[in-house]
Amino acid sequence: MDIVKTYHPELLKYKNKHVGEVCYIFGSGPSFLKFKKQDDGIFIGCNHIIKDQYIKKNIKYYFFGHGYTVYKDNTTPRGNHKKEVDDLGNHIEKFCMVSRNNDISVHKFTINDIKNLKNINAIPCDINLNNIYDNIESNSFLNHSIVFPATQFALYSGFSKIYLVGCDCNAYTEKNHKYFFNDNNKKNKKIDYNNVKWWREMYKFKNLHYPNTKFVNINPIGLKNIMDQDIYT
Q1: In what order do the strands lie in the sheet with 42-46?
Q2: What is the dihedral of CA 142, 143, 146, 152, to 10 degrees?
Q3: Coil, strand or helix: which one is 152?
Q4: pTM for the model
Q5: In the prediction, which pLDDT does 82 show?
Q6: Residue 103 carries which DSSP code?
Q7: 80-95: b or e for each residue (b if 16 or more CB lie within 10 Å)?
Q8: Lesser CB count within 10 Å: N end or C end of the chain?
């Protein structure tokens, strides 16, 4: 299935929808625990951040990936959270990364899994490993971390100030996959420098295509001194 051709044109309805507005992108890194709201803005959540009830009640957009599916051998890599996502309600608009370069076997979604995402108000999306595109209605999102598609979406939608929360570039391995959120996440102090590299690329992309948009990092760890502004709460 060509995910980009089939589903990505639906993203056009978000292009410049939020020009001049403020948003918060929530990863689930440990610095999230110190979060304090700075301005009124739209909440964009990623993956396991919905374990936090405050975020769950207030997000408008939600990005998630293959943790939503259960593999055929019943393993659940990176922690399955299908029920939590399904329970969010259809008032929250969702974006699910179902394939990589249109290969759905990579992320273990079936064709029916993808079609059924419509039942929870989710758009199936494709990701790639090497490129950041401005025209996401006809190209895939960047992979490496779920916060990258969320950030591309925020830029595409026209937000003028994007707060990054819990985007700490925590290293992930199969051994420490439980370190996703809250007190467990505090145990994972390693920095994923591949993610840092791609954040630098995202910052360059932002400056090239959206020079009037500002990235503000709240309580930065791995991204300290990399974005337009760091603030500490």
Answers
A1: 141-142, 122-128, 93-100, 59-64, 42-46, 22-26, 161-165, 214-218, 229-231
A2: 0
A3: helix
A4: 0.89
A5: 84
A6: B
A7: bbeebbeebeeebebb
A8: C
